[in-house]
What does this fold into?
Amino acid sequence: MSYIFCAYREYSQNVYKKLKKKYKNIFLIKKKEDLTISKIRKIRPKYIFFPDWSWIVPNEIVKLNNCICLHESNLPKFRGGSPIQNQIIKGITKTKTTAFLMNSKLDAGDILLQQDLSLEGSLDDVISRMEKNDYEIICKIIQGKSKRRKQRGIPSFYKRRTPEQSELINLNHPKSFMYNFIRMLADPYPNAFIRIGKRKIIFKLAKFDGRNLSFQGVIE
It folds into this structure.
């Protein structure tokens, strides 16, 4: 059996490297323009995995293949873009990594597997957990250890965040809110920032002990 793994960020590359050691016939696609019908026909994959993909997959590809997306929310809640950020900013600390079969509707396909995902700690902590979940879930699906079911509940939808939304305009928010705002936008995402005159202070790291909020940043 062959498989395609579509992803481009560092954490997902780590997942691919682990999978490649276990499954030799898994092929990496990192660029939107490389995901073509001709390439897919040549590989003839059983599954195409999308653990980290920022582009709309053409319907022709979705219809003709078993396309599996890994989405960081307890679907059908928080469908759409930037699920990690949109949950953290609302104070959510426990969610799921959800693997589902893609269809023509956004994040609406049947669920194959879910694993718990904590959103606490630094963004590096969260991404490390995502990496572990993605690897384990993909292995289980390849091994036939998944069970297809319909999504249940009332869906909620959120748009992908833009770099402009990383500006922290109001400093009168509670410290817990500002902590979540800064930590959810650590690298590789567009970092949180404030404007002071002609300068920008860009936040790189935040710590909050329940009383005191501290951060590391740079002046641009």
